[in-house]
Amino acid sequence: MTAFLKPRAPSPRWRRRGTVLALLAPWLIGFTVFFAYPMASTVYYSFHRFDLFTAEFIGLDNYWYFLGDERAHLAFRNTLWLVAVLVPAQMVFGLGVAQLVVRLKAGAGFFRTVFFLPSLVPTVAGTVGFVFLLNPATGPVNGLLSAAGIEGPDWYGDPAWAKPGLVLLALWGIGNLMVIFMAALLDVPRHLYEAAAIDGAGALRQFRSITLPTISPVLMFSAVTGVIQAMQYFTQAWITSRVAAGATDSPGSSYTPGYPDGSLLTFPQWLFQTAFRDFSMGYASVLALIMFVISMLFILILLRRFRAFGDEGA
Amino acid sequence: MSADTVPAAGSAQDRLTPPSRPRRMPRATLYWIAKHALAIALALMFLGPLVFIALTALMTDAQALTSQLWPQSWNWGNFSEIFTTTPLLRWIVNTMVYSLSATALMLASSVPVAYALARIRFRGRKTAFLLVILMMLLPPQVVAVPIYTLWASMGLTNSLWPLIIPMVFGDAFSIFLLRQFMLTIPREYSDAARVDGCGEFTTMLRVILPMARPAIAAVALFQFFYCWNDYYGPLLYASTNADSWTLSLGIASFKALHSVQWNLTMAATILVMAPVIIVFFLAQKVFIEGVTLTGVKG
Lengths: 314, 298
Description:
The complex is a heterodimer. By secondary structure, chain A is mostly helical. Chain A is built from 13 helices and 2 strands. In chain A, strands 1-2 form a two-stranded antiparallel sheet. In chain A, a hairpin with a 4-residue loop joins strand 1 and strand 2. The radius of gyration of chain B is 24 Å and the shape is globular. The longest helix of chain B has about 35 residues. By secondary structure, chain B is an all-alpha fold. The chains are: A mainly alpha, B mainly alpha.
């Protein structure tokens, strides 16, 4: 049967649009239901007193409440601390380990695997493990420290040491960053180092003038995505607090997050607590919008700076 | 991304070691020793936590209360005891159901979207891709309240369904990764398929899918492990119903809820880690390539 005998066959252009629509259909629904609608809805709820069942319009009251909510401010400061300390610490350590591994002559594959392995350990298992390792009474870390004549801190029981304890946990799971940095380091053209060596540049000078500028896009990308992740920092802190305080996730547990003394209370935890434990969902929407605005700033940096996020190809 | 972006021992030294200056041998030898000593020290620090966790898992209750490092006796029975003192088996089943169904659904829904975004020109493609990136990067907490409300209105909170059903509609991170990979497949393959009379669906299934296998394997593994490790999702939807607890929920409350010692708690954490680590050793290449793919170059 030839095409012109068919009554009103769709033009190739429309058939193409139909194909695209069919391929995108699931995602279009998902985008609407799980993204566009909730975004608009969050803005709507932020002007309401909302407890999952009834919503009552209260204007800007939720926003005013945030200005005086000291727990929220504490949570914000803690998250800021994590962004300012955790992200740079991970970057420096990850780059250092990557530099070391690409220079190893014997056993590079073995060491790469060993350094990558901990990043695979499930977050919950790693976190519970570290609460045990850093437990001052029974954990091996303080045991080893005292054998060396050092009196170890109280780690997750001491507000001053709890966050540094989480930094140790984060540095342990550096594997992904290391692999990304290794790939970047191996892409640096070798002849640049040769030319620099002929000009008498030492190792440090070569690192500063060749390595850093060449891999800076990768560093920049990791830094910005690292910041976005650090702003969401939840699971490790939530679990550390609970296990160290001896609390559970069971219903009826009247535990407020942040043990010891609010030092591990991060912003997403406070959002979770207000929304899903206290059911102050209108106020939680304000907290969500604050997170949205701050993350958007960093996402815009990514979108502007990185070609890979642009629309090229095919 | 291709095989040659994967760091390999041989290429590493060839390309990165700056040519050594014409000096005497000892200095190079010292440098060699220093590097490898540092690597060994670091390796001990990276492996240490795993070793101590494993050793504690084998101690008796009484010894786990002390700060001793080496088990006096090897209590392999701890691993069977955690199955009898806690509903560990139920948690494992729930976690498997969640991880496997989410991964299968994600693949079925995300591959076509990635294909359309990477290989078909259409109006609005740029915008669609931008929205995928936004969904990928924005913290899930931002939209958590209305989505929770949605599931509550359907009576599906207190279960794992709110974590599985959305996978029918694609996962932004997987779409992004698959699309990046599909972009690297030369256009000529699609053109050849078209000349042979293939439509878009046939081209996708017969030409692009087989070529994108490494990327598909990577996103499937990432999704599976994401679910296996997920704590925030189950905490939000399933923590109020002990019947739908996952391993991560169980492990996080293990010690307090079952009033057990660190030895059993560590045995349980070993059990959560083991599958991930075993799969990693079986599919190490897929992992490393996948991670490399996420470190987008500017």
